[in-house]
Model the fold of this input.
Amino acid sequence: MDYGAFYHLEEYLFSEVHTRFHRDRRLGAFDFFCIVVWKANRAKSKVAKKLLSRGHASLDAAVAELTGRIAAAPDAKARLRVLVVDWGFRMPVATAILAVLYPDAFTICDARVAQVVGTRVPEMYGNFDTLWQRYQEFQARVERSAPEGLSLRDKDRYLWGKSFRDGLVTDLRAWQAPLDGTAPDAFSARIGGFTGPNWEVVWRGGVLRYRRHWGNLDDGEVHEVCPTPEAWRRFWQGCDEIGVWRWDARYDNLLVLDGIQWELEMRVGARAVRSSGSNAYPHPVPGADPMERTPAFRRFLALVRELLDGLEFG
Done:
């Protein structure tokens, strides 16, 4: 066996795995999980549990049934339905699987690409026909945003590469212009829910004005904190490490109407970010509960608490 083939995993997928699927009309577990690992390595255990929960004797049996149904589906929409509706896959992994098997028909729902083309990754929120329409719109944006003459797969690669390059250039500029202990030009952060505890902090008049209150009530705990230059230096350093300056404008979980809402606005020198969310958070972990706070967001809350000399926040 040529183990070197797995070093270039994408090439292996789009040549050998693709060919094997169209020859056998199904895949084995190894090839299937090569696709999962390529797209979302951290989600592989959850995918395995999902497949085995359907009562199959083995992963090979589960994958054979799933990919056999994909092969038997009459068109692209039906193939996506098999993965998303019948088997419960989320769009990033589902479209990665289909892009390997049908590269001329499917673009991958990738967060980097979505940011470049100015939209969000479509997800399943109750109605598959609506999801399919949003996915078609997403794919149309990909087609328009990359140079003509490229295959759909190469357009994915082009846009991913643009996101990578732009992100690294932004990082290089930030790394070479440290903020040190600079106080912000503007800073505000809020988190809470309609019926639960709420926290907010605003930079005004050279101090952080902190308030903790319950629901929509006006009373509550109030403090003023004046961070030292060293405290601001540590805060900005932490924000750089978790990529706060590149957070999207909005994160939403449309399945939940109440829950937790949050807002953030920061501006210091040439850097600025304005981001907010409702039961969804930056840098989501593939396969994780979308309502679960992500590691990056938890770290941000900890940075704010440190800036507030240990006051509770979030």
